[in-house]
């Protein structure tokens, strides 16, 4: 062998080692007869075993195959995977058996026979792998030096000795052996010969390989995942199997350089690793040739290395490189990419934002195109946020919906061009592609929610009931609920178990049934036997509308009671109340200091969103109430509230106190799939094993003697444990700002000389001990080492942030209720050396106790809760794309445009019946996609399968009405969901064209002639949403309005004018015919001279009016406050005209005598209609008045009492009057009297009759 030139000398050396080394000579090789398809350390996995089992499964369904056959195939696959998992759990046993596994769908015996040969082959190869590794270890211990000398060949160029020459008869050592040099020296190559070249072990033999995972963590994690994979819930099974595959890859555990990458290495002083090259190639040219999401562990250089590598390779002048990152990370990402690509690589980075505020005109659109073209030509990088990208897309569709076809065509065509040339890379894709991330362009007019403002009062009453029941709940469930009292304010509530939730619901329903609530009033004849029916309505799984109507009749106002019952059902049955109570104030929601006083989502602790809002109306109402309960009123808000109260009807009558995690991979957009590299399958399990290492198992409760520690006491606890890095993932610090916290921490821990924290501007700042001014971290020597510093990472900066923490740093990581694995792992990996030298210690609140299994369970629960929203958004996407393809000529054909726009627009407002009553008419249903193109069939099938599995989950409430309509989808998701809203455009006002001839004729002739220039008052009402919905039309009324009264703003389509109704101020009145015409000030002004010069007696009078919305405005109701010219004393204005005018103007206050006229008017109007016409009319009056008053309370006014049928006596506070001289307003105008000023308030108080006597207002 040694003389054969084809023999590898290393083989000879290894054979010599077996002969000379006792450890090798005495080792016993495996006793197997043969080995086939050998791979070092090859292990079975679910995929390989299932592949063998699947040979006998039914064929995969074809396109035309029946649904039953496809369903049977899916069921067989599920059973096959469970059998594969049962086999895998028996590894590394020599034999495999079904162990009692039984199935009607699989031939278990046949499957076992098919798996057995593969199992035995792998088991034999495992024994051989162990033997090979043993040999390798021995060879490594006896490895020769690297400087082994090489014998020189014998030189044959000297003169030979004279004489006769003979051919050799034996081999010549000097000629045949020594003249042949060794191929290589006896070095590492020979030692590594036995290992396969593709095993990656050879390249890491010197210790550069990843640390082998300790067996203890492996066993523990595998046990946790086995329990999860055997759960009955399909989602948990799938999640557990995915993590087990990641663990298998971790146990099993080429650098093609481009010129730009070499420059990147030189300029950045880094060495690109093979793992980073693999990921970069997978980004540049995915094997699937489709949209792809990859996973790489935190700290492996995603943003600092891999993304710049990919951007440099993609931007070649033919493709445009675009980097999409969440808005909070724009600045640090821009700095990082600029430092990597802006130097020797020579690439320009440009941020090109776009929003609804961008004024679109030809110049702006041309600039937008030029900026992108410049970046394409210069091979630069465009940096944008997801909302910028979506805003440009939506702007084209908005102009299409507004019939601005030229602009829409220009925007949409360039969007199509961008889509063809741009390659998008998403950093932190789990944030940008989250199901809860959606951009919406609202259009149309703002309207009040159904049952406003009573809806707010019900929400406050429900929160008050919760507070009342807390002591008893705490007594009955001491371990399942935590109540944190805050003085006299509303307590913070932490519900830890479902038993408390169910008991709270029961107590609230008991309060309603036993008549202890103010928002539902039983009739006098209501029976106690109706309690079971009320419980079924409020808590039943399904709602019987007939039962609802029967229960509603037990209350004083059937219409109001029906809507209130539906509202309470939504808050209880759909668990909106509980979901809002679970949210954390100042972490997940709160008030924005400069926006409208409504609760908004928080991006992180103390950081309110600038544009987002909660999608579900009742969630927004409840969270707003809680936000004010916890925050209190600022001085400005108090003044504003006081101003509204003083403007109300009677202030004294009522006063009311690339990503590192991939847990969302099952919910990626339909056009994107998760395609992790095989070499990176270990990522998920790898980080979990870090957390299971002994040094990372520290766990402490932030409490003493059962009492929750204050923030200052918590910092003292960190000092005692010598912890200087606080990663506040659980947002424990709420009351102090980041800067205040580090100041306090430095006062408590006096040894560190500086503290590092993030400011409100998302920049890293340093505060040195003994100084007042803060300094940017980049301007200090601490940027490269933070050895003697306190470091605080608030909840907003526990991902996407990389600080050079000390090598042996020990961090404190806080846990919160409901925290997911994704959130926890992202926070823990801020310690980049967590696998080696750094460590983490967990701190939990008293109400929080979590293990690794709890984190995985919470992740499953979160994904499960988001499934309905994912289905809804996916269905909407399929419908939109299908409509776009079906109406391909929408930019040119009016019919296609109309059909496409109809699919794009979603109605937002829903009634309580639609939300909670099971009514789906007039709701944009997305429960089943309408698909006509085969390219979308796979998406539709996936959504239908998800919908089927979701409907079979008992704990998952599904309501089609709640998962539709903009962001109003499944209730739980709405409570958690964030939507981006950008303000609508301003409207252009109409110009006054001048006085219409018909009005001038009315002044001169006292007759209204023709049908132009004016219309009946109820026709004007029909121009509003309330009038249109109620079907209100013209009647024989003698009250008219001018055409200009309803012309306020210019709109692109004939729309409603809800938000642009004029107040009623001027009325032309004919005392003979009792005709009255409401005009505007511009029409009244030119008529005044003509009215004053009329012949006596005057034919037409100009009356002033203002709808009485407070008690002191009642003098306006008689229409005699100011008349030009004055009305005769003996003239009586018809009561019906006064009633109609008051209703149209939105009056709230009426005198006692006028209440009789109002009731008579309603009865007269309803007399000729069906039996329930009175109820319909009163409902319309309430809705119309709420619209007119723009949110002012209507129910607690005389008008509200009359419409609700509530009893009113003359002794009621509404009708207590004072003397005219003390009324606080000017006396009515008469020709025989002068105008007198209003008396002082002091005189008014002094003249109050002490005996409680009442005086009638005397006129004239």
UniProtKB/TrEMBL annotation:
Indicate the secretion signal residues.
none
**Entry's Gene Ontology molecular function annotations:** cysteine-type deubiquitinase activity
Q: Which GO terms describe its biological process?
A: proteolysis
Please state every residue range assigned to the domain named DUF3645. Answer: 592-624
Chain segments carrying region Disordered: 1227-1260
**Hydrolase: present as a keyword of the record?**
yes
Please tell me whether the keyword DNA repair is annotated for this protein.
no
Please give the catalytic activity noted in the UniProt record.
Thiol-dependent hydrolysis of ester, thioester, amide, peptide and isopeptide bonds formed by the C-terminal Gly of ubiquitin (a 76-residue protein attached to proteins as an intracellular targeting signal)
Supply the name of the protein: ubiquitinyl hydrolase 1
- Protein species of origin: Alternaria tenuissima
The taxonomy runs:
Eukaryota, Fungi, Dikarya, Ascomycota, Pezizomycotina
């Amino acid at each position: 062998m040694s003389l054969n030139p084809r023999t590898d000398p290393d083989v000879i050396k290894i054979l010599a080692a077996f002969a000379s080394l006792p450890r090798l000579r005495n080792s016993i090789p495996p006793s197997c007869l043969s080995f086939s398809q050998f791979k070092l350390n090859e292990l079975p996995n679910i995929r390989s075993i299932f592949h063998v089992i699947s040979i006998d499964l039914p064929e995969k369904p074809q396109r035309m195959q029946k649904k039953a056959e496809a369903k049977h195939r899916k069921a067989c696959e599920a059973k096959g995977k469970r059998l594969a998992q049962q086999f895998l759990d028996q590894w590394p046993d020599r034999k495999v058996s079904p162990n009692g596994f039984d199935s009607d769908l699989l031939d278990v015996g046949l499957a076992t026979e098919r798996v057995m040969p593969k199992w035995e082959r792998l088991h034999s190869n495992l024994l051989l792998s162990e033997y090979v590794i043993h040999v390798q270890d021995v060879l490594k211990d006896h490895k020769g030096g690297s400087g082994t000398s090489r014998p020189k060949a014998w030189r044959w160029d000297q003169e030979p000795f004279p004489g006769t020459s003979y051919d050799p008869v034996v081999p010549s050592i000097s000629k045949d052996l020594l003249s042949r040099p060794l191929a290589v020296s006896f070095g590492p190559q020979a030692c590594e010969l036995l290992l396969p070249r593709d095993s990656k072990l050879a390249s890491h033999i010197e210790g550069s390989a990843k640390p082998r995972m300790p067996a203890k963590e492996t066993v523990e994690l595998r046990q946790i995942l086995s329990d999860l994979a055997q759960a009955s819930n399909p989602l948990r099974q799938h999640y557990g199997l995915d993590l087990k595959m990641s663990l298998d890859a971790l146990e099993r555990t080429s650098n093609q350089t481009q010129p730009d990458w070499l420059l990147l290495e030189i300029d950045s002083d880094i060495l690109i690793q093979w793992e980073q090259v693999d990921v970069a190639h997978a980004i540049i040219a995915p094997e699937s040739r489709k949209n792809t999401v990859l996973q790489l562990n935190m700290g492996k250089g995603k943003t600092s290395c891999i993304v710049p590598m990919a951007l440099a390779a993609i931007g070649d002048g033919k493709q445009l490189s675009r980097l999409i990152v969440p808005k909070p990370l724009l600045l640090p990402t821009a700095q990082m990419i600029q430092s990597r690509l802006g130097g020797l690589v020579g690439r320009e980075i440009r941020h090109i934002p776009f929003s609804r505020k961008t004024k679109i005109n030809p110049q702006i659109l041309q600039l937008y195109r030029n900026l992108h073209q410049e970046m394409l030509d210069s091979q630069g990088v465009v940096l944008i946020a997801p909302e910028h990208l979506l805003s440009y897309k939506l702007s084209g569709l908005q102009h299409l919906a507004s019939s601005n076809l030229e602009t829409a065509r220009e925007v949409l065509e360039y969007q199509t061009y961008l889509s063809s040339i741009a390659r998008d890379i998403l950093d932190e894709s789990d944030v940008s592609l989250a199901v809860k991330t959606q951009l919406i362009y609202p259009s149309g007019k703002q309207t009040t929610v159904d049952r406003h403002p009573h809806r707010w009062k019900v929400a406050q009453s429900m929160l008050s009931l919760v507070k009342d029941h807390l002591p008893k709940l705490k007594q009955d469930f001491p371990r399942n609920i935590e109540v944190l009292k805050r003085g006299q304010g509303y307590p913070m509530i932490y519900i830890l178990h479902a038993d408390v939730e169910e008991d709270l619901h029961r107590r609230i329903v008991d309060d309603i049934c036993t008549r202890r609530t103010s928002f539902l009033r039983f009739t006098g004849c209501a029976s106690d036997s109706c309690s079971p029916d009320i419980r079924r309505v409020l808590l039943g799984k399904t709602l019987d509308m007939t039962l609802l109507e029967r229960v509603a009749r037990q209350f004083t106002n059937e219409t109001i009671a029906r809507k209130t019952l539906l509202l309470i059902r939504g808050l209880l049955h759909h668990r909106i109340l509980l979901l809002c109570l679970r949210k954390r104030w100042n972490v997940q929601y709160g008030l924005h200091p400069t926006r409208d006083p409504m609760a908004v989502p928080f991006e992180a602790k103390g950081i309110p969103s600038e544009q987002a809002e909660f999608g579900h109306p009742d969630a927004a109402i409840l969270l707003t109430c809680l936000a004010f309960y916890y925050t209190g009123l600022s001085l400005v808000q108090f003044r504003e509230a006081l101003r509204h109260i003083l403007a109300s009807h009677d202030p004294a009558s009522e006063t009311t106190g690339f990503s590192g995690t991939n847990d969302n991979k099952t919910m990626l957009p339909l056009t994107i799939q998760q395609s992790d590299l095989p070499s990176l399958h270990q990522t998920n399990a790898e980080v979990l094993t870090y957390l299971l290492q002994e040094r990372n198992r520290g766990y402490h409760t932030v409490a003493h003697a059962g009492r929750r520690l204050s923030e200052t006491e918590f910092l003292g606890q960190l000092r005692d444990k010598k912890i200087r890095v606080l990663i506040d993932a659980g947002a424990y610090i709420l009351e102090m700002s980041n800067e205040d916290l580090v100041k306090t921490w430095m006062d408590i821990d006096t040894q560190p000389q500086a503290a590092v924290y993030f400011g409100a501007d998302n920049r890293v700042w340093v505060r040195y001990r003994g100084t007042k001014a803060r300094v940017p971290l980049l301007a200090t020597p601490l940027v490269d080492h933070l050895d003697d510093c306190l470091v605080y990472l608030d909840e907003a900066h526990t991902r996407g942030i990389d600080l050079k923490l000390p090598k042996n740093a020990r961090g404190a990581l806080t846990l919160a209720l409901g925290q997911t694995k994704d959130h926890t792992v992202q926070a823990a990996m801020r310690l980049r050396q967590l696998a080696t030298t750094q460590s983490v210690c967990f701190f939990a609140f008293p109400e929080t106790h979590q293990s690794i299994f709890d984190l995985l369970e919470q992740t499953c629960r979160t994904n499960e809760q988001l499934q309905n929203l994912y289905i809804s958004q996916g269905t909407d996407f399929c419908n939109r794309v299908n409509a776009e393809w079906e109406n391909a000529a929408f930019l040119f054909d009016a019919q296609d445009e109309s059909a496409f726009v109809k699919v794009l627009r979603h109605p937002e407002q829903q009634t309580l019946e639609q939300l909670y009553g099971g009514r789906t008419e007039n709701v944009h249903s997305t429960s089943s996609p309408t698909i006509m193109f085969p390219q979308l069939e796979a998406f539709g099938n996936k959504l239908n399968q998800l919908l089927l599995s979701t409907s079979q989950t008992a704990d998952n409430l599904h309501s089609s009405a709640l998962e539709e309509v903009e962001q109003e989808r499944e209730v739980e998701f709405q409570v958690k969901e964030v939507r981006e809203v950008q303000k609508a455009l301003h409207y252009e006002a109409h110009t006054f064209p001048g006085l219409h001839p018909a009005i001038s004729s009315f002044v001169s002739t006292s007759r209204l002639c023709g049908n132009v220039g004016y219309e009946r008052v109820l026709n004007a009402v029909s121009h509003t949403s309330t009038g249109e919905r109620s079907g209100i039309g013209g009647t024989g009324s003698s009250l008219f309005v001018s055409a200009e009264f309803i012309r306020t703003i210019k709109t692109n389509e004939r729309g409603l004018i809800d938000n642009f109704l004029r107040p009623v101020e001027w009325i032309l009145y004919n005392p003979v015919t009792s005709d009255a015409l409401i005009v505007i000030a511009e029409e009244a002004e030119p008529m005044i001279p003509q009215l004053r010069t009329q012949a006596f007696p005057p034919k037409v009078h100009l009356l002033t009016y203002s709808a009485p919305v407070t008690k002191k405005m009642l003098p306006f109701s008689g229409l005699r406050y100011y008349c030009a010219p004055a009305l005769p004393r003996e003239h009586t204005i018809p009561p019906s005209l006064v009633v109609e005018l008051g209703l149209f103007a939105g009056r709230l206050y009426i005198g006692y005598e006028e209440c009789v006229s109002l009731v008579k008017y309603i009865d007269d109007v309803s007399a000729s209609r069906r039996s329930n016409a009175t109820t319909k009319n009163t409902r319309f009056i309430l809705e119309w008045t709420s619209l007119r008053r723009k949110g002012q309370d209507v129910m607690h006014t005389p008008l509200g009492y009359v419409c609700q049928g509530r009893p009113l006596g003359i002794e009621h506070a509404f009708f207590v009057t004072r003397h005219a001289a003390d009324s606080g307003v000017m006396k009515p105008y008469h020709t025989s009297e002068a105008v007198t000023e209003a008396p002082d308030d002091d005189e008014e108080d002094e003249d109050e009759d002490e005996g409680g006597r009442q005086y009638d207002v005397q006129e004239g």
